[in-house]
Amino acid sequence: KGIYSMKYDVYSYGVLPLQIISGKRTSRYYGRNEDLNLLEFAYELRKNGEGTEFFDPSLDDSSSAWKLMRCMQIALLCVQENAADRPAVLEILTMLNNETANIKVPRKPAFSVKSDEDECIPEVKICSVNDASITQLIPR
Questions:
Q1: How many domains does the chain have?
Q2: Could you tell me which of 35, 71, 67, 41 has the C-alpha nearest to residue 53?
Q3: Cβ-based neighbour number of residue 78 at 10 Å
Q4: Could you tell me if residue 54 is inside a domain?
Q5: Where residue 45 sits, what CATH number does that domain have?
Q6: What's the CA gap between 77 and 92, in Å, rounded?
Q7: What integer best gives the mean pLDDT of the chain?
């Protein structure tokens, strides 16, 4: 919207851990249909309880899986669509340093093609009797 905010730095920070823990680039598409960007892919996997599938196999260690999940959730909080929902830098630091701190459930990431409501929207029905509009141009 053309307005700079500290939350843009938070967004940029959130992208980095997602790239690191996945070993994937943000410039490609992922998912079953390859229609999700990296942020959407992480969000969907976490939402469906399949977050461990997001991790780079070289990081796959059962003892650190919960730390990676926590890191993923914090990163997803940082990239939420609404900048006001993103945590402040101090909150991020607290969540990273305190393993018992509660972490909110992240909402849809910014720049998502899909919306959370896509699955719930019923088909649009056309209720108008008027099948055609007639426009008549009249010169001045």
A1: 1
A2: 41
A3: 26
A4: yes
A5: 1.10.510.10
A6: 9
A7: 82
Indicate whether 30 belongs to any domain: yes
- In the block, tokens 């720049």 appear at 111
Q: Tokens representing 124?
A: 């649009």
Terminal-to-terminal C-alpha distance of the chain: 39
Q: Looking at the domain assignment, is residue 115 inside a domain?
A: no
Burial code (b: 16+ CB inside 10 Å, e: under 16) for 8-47 equals eebbebbbebbeebbebeeeeebeeeeebbbbbbbbbbbe
- Condensed to tens digits (0 to 9), the pLDDT of residues 13-64 reads 999 999 999 999 887 888 877 888 999 999 999 999 999 999 998 886 777 8
> How far is residue 25 from each of residues 33, 35, 76, 84, measured CA to CA in Å?
17, 14, 16, 26
User: The domain containing residue 27 runs over which residues?
Assistant: 6-97
Q: Which of 26, 60, 63 is nearest to 42 (CA)?
A: 26
pTM value is 0.74
Task: Look at residue 106 and tell me if it is in a domain.
Answer: no
